[in-house]
Amino acid sequence: MARLETQVLVVGAGPTGLALAIELGQRGVACTVVERNDRVGYAPRAKTTHTRTREHLRRWGIADKLAAEAPFGIDHPSRVHFVTRLSGHSLAVIEDAFNCAPARNDLYAEHAQWIPQYKVEAVLKAHAATLPSVSLRFSCEFLGAAQTDDGVTARVKDLVTGEVSEIQAGYLVGADGAKSQVRDLIGATMEGVYGLAHAYNIVFRAPGLAEAHPHGPGIMYWQINAEVSGLIGPMDAGDLWCFMPARAPDVMRLDKPAAADLIRRATGIDLPYEVLSADEWAASRFIADRYRNGRMFLIGDACHLHPPTGGYGMNMGIGDSVDLGWKLAARLQAWGGEGLLASYEAERRPVHQQVIDAAVANHATLAMHLVRPELEADTEEGAALRAQLGEGLARARLREFRPLGVMLGYRYEGSPIVAKEPEVSPEAPADTPVGHYQPTARPGSRAPHAWLGDGRSLFDTFGSGFTLLGFGADAAFAAAEADAAALGVPLTVVRLEDPHLAALYDASLALIRPDQHVAWRGAVWPGPDVLRLATGR
Predict the structure, then answer these.
(1) Per DSSP, what are the bridge partners of residue 32?
(2) Please, what is the end-to-end C-alpha distance for the chain in angstroms?
(3) pLDDT tens per residue, range 187-229
(4) Radius of gyration, CA atoms only, the chain
(5) Active-site residue, from 221, 312, 412, 437
(6) Any catalytic annotation for residue 118?
(7) Quick check: pTM over 0.85?
(8) pLDDT per residue over 510-537, tens digit each?
(9) Contact 20/176 with Cβ under 8 angstroms?
(10) What burial class does residue 424 get, using C-beta atoms within 10 Å of its C-beta: 0-12 exposed, 13-18 middle, 19+ buried?
(11) Helix or strand or coil: residue 195?
(12) Is 418 helix (H, G, I), strand (E, B) or coil?
């Protein structure tokens, strides 16, 4: 039996596992990823890469590569249309859904992007493969593992040769999805509700469909009618589309001819639809009761699941990878304490709860049950019903398509590695827009973003370790650098003479973590204890 060694073994090479490999690999940590599949297929899974995820890709140097893979061009309008049918009446339109417009915005360094998950995976995989310390092993099955106080011993099987190998690792991370084997090893239990809804995901080719309807370009068309309601939208170049009927037929499998007929009935457009796949799925809400056991961890769908409304799933998984990745690197490189690893669940689980609640709330706004037969009638009654429903849809569904408050506004409140500040709970104004994001530099928050006078993003000035931002406080830099050197903590100091930034951060100094979250802020450098706190010592 072959015996291999690595610092971190990752099970699963979806976007979450690949993101962890990149986070570790760019920090020089030896990482092996095993994946039983090759990830090739038609199924789009996620299609929204949110602003925060693309900020991580920017930090890794590959945001532009993902933008280049946009199937309809990065300027394709991210409009969400509500219609009776693709061939029918318009009910409402939401512009710039998910903040995909490429124009610069002070609130974030990268706009969101509408792109199939398999293209995201391809970009992540290609980049991970360039990192010297990362080994990707596809068609390789994880068989099991055992741990001691000193490490993890895992067994894997090459599905091409049949060879079984043993891998010695410092840590094991399960990025192996909803049916996680690593979760079973950890002894974690998923708690929640299965089957909030059942639906089909139909992927099909339809030359001419984009030109056959009157509603103009967009990324989603929510069809609402008494016959076959559901979501339809363009998926990829080559006339690929995706359709999710709201009420799946009462059969176990939907064959391809039946799926094509369902598309014709839903859209009211008769074309030679080529159905590529028709897969049943269930929307559920689950969260694991624990994310760790010793040297084994869970990330992504292995520890949290929620309805797809809002497009949070893949993005939350990549956020898990970033949080755990820099902490594992710090621990393995001896500048982080055990408290860093303990903080992973303490920070991410409350965020997952918030996002699950948001996704379930979005799911509850689906308005298919509001359909009345008269909705499509070319009568005064039909027009009045459409106007009433359109107004209600635009209001009720806005939260799903204005996600900055969810994606950027979370804070690691109560984290054991974040400085405490007195709580301030101002009441939000009554006219606060849905999905509003208010930047704040309170410790635990994502660092507020700004574009600098020379055109750079503020985030581009951050180092790969900790960063001390100073807005005119010269004396603090020397003391902070000396404290960091004594503790072996990587620290970049950045001085910016900018009153706007000082006001934005409401402090003259701010300590930024490797994941771009604020660890501490203040007027006077507090000495080495703040670095000890932020590195879990």
Answers:
(1) 9, 135
(2) 39
(3) 999 998 887 777 788 999 999 999 999 999 999 999 999 889 9
(4) 24
(5) 221
(6) no
(7) yes
(8) 999 999 999 999 999 999 999 999 999 9
(9) no
(10) exposed
(11) strand
(12) coil
